[in-house]
Amino acid sequence: MARFVVAITGGVASGKSTVCARFAAHGIEVIDADLVARELVEPEQPALAEIARRFGQRLLDEDGRLQRRYLRQIIFRDPAARADLEAILHPLVHAVLVERAGHAVGPYVVLAIPLLTETGQYRWVDRIVVVDVDPATQVRRLLLRDGIDETQAQQMLAAQATRAERLALASDVIVNDADLDTLNDRVDTLHAEFLAAARR
């Protein structure tokens, strides 16, 4: 296990990826739970077979790959379906994160876990960084980023933990309400703190 483990989370369109990229620019290894989840649903992976059994073969395209957009529509409409998907994927993702953190090099490792609050995957990390932004800004960014309508954007926010729930878990908060230079400065400050904590 790396000497010091930092988990980064935040609501959809909060700026988590930008924050993680800044940590990576400092030479810190970033392990992304979303990318791990994508690996786990590749063809021939057990998770994909289990998802197909639960939701039907119609979720797979002619090449046997998961049709993510179709699955996303299902789980945002149906909380029970979302819970079933999470029960399949989250334990597998958690196991991979623990394993990869154990092989990470450097003074500390960053885990990008968008659904950290929802899954409880935080008991073994040293610090939890929440990237925080107001919901109106999240909606505006989603409309621009994903080309969806406001109803869909609100559904995406409603499917996640609340802002208050995320902030209740935070060891550190990065408020992403200004320009990129300001955001980078905030990350740089935390990077220095984490280096010092890892040395201790």
What would the keywords be for this entry?
200 residues; 57% helix; 10 helices; Rossmann fold; alpha/beta
Describe the structure.
The chain has 200 residues and is α/β, with parallel strands linked by helices. It has a single domain (5-199), classed as 3-Layer(aba) Sandwich (Rossmann fold). It has helices at 16-25, 33-40, 46-55, 68-77, 79-103, 116-119, 135-146, 150-158, 163-169, 180-199; strands at 5-10, 29-32, 109-112, 127-132, 172-175. The chain has a five-stranded parallel sheet with strand order 2-3-1-4-5, with helices on both faces. 28% of the residues are buried. The model has no long low-confidence stretch (mean pLDDT 93).
Tally of distinct domains:
1
Roughly how many Å apart are the termini?
A: 16 Å
Written as H for each helix and E for each strand, in order along the chain, the element string is EHEHHHHEHEHHHEH
Mean pLDDT: 93
Strand order of the largest sheet: 2-3-1-4-5
Largest pleated sheet: 5 strands, parallel
Question: What is this entry, summarized?
Answer:
By secondary structure, the chain is of the alpha/beta class. 57% of the residues lie in helices and 12% in strands.
